[in-house]
Amino acid sequence: MADDASNVDFVIARVFDAPRELVFRTMTETAHLARWWGPKGCQIEVAKHALKPGGVFHYCMRFAPGIEMWGKFVYHEISPERLVWVNGFADPQGNSIPNPMSPVWPLGVLNTTVLTEQGGKTTMTMSSVPIGASELEREAFLAGHPSMRDGFCGTYDQYALYLASLKAG
To answer: Where is the Activator of Hsp90 ATPase homologue 1/2-like C-terminal domain (predicted)?
Structure first.
């Protein structure tokens, strides 16, 4: 499904202090996603969530009054060991749209998340690659890696705090 674009793959890894079963559940269940997904400081509204191959997670990120951005996942594979989905920007009806901040951003990005457990901790390795992208879109994706790293690190920092709150509660 991915283009031969290994030179633009984006990869991050994190270790979470929780068993894989809990990590998988909190990464895939609607109520949990609404509590931690997205950049720091935004509120998530889940418009639709169907956890199945071909199912959609359609959501709105609200940053401040009047500032919102819509996104969408389309799930391809779902198991406690591996999640595969395509994500991109969307309109409020769930239609895929270009990135409102970068018109040369790829319309879709294939994400593969692998979860491995050892000693009660879960390592998450996520790789992302643009799909169906032009050379200009692949270049934009590559140039966006530092911003993506910051965004995903912030998101997964929130996620780690969310997991800790579940364990403490």
So the answer is: 17-158
Cβ-in-10-Å burial (0-12, 13-18, 19+) of 129 comes to buried
DSSP output for 35-70: HH-SSTT-EEEEEEE--STT-EEEEEEEEETTEEEE
Could you tell me if 130 and 108 are in contact, meaning their C-beta atoms sit under 8 angstroms apart?
Answer: yes
Specify the pLDDT at position 31.
95
Q: Give pTM, 2 decimals.
A: 0.90
Q: Average per-residue pLDDT in the chain?
A: 92
State pLDDT tens for residues 22-38: 999 999 999 999 999 98
- Give the residues across from 15 on adjacent strands: 123
- Look at residue 70 and tell me whether its pLDDT is greater than 70: yes
Which domains does the chain carry? 6-168 (3.30.530.20)
Distances (CA, A) of 99 to 9, 44, 57, 90, 103: 19, 18, 17, 8, 6
Task: List the structure tokens of 143.
Answer: 């140039």
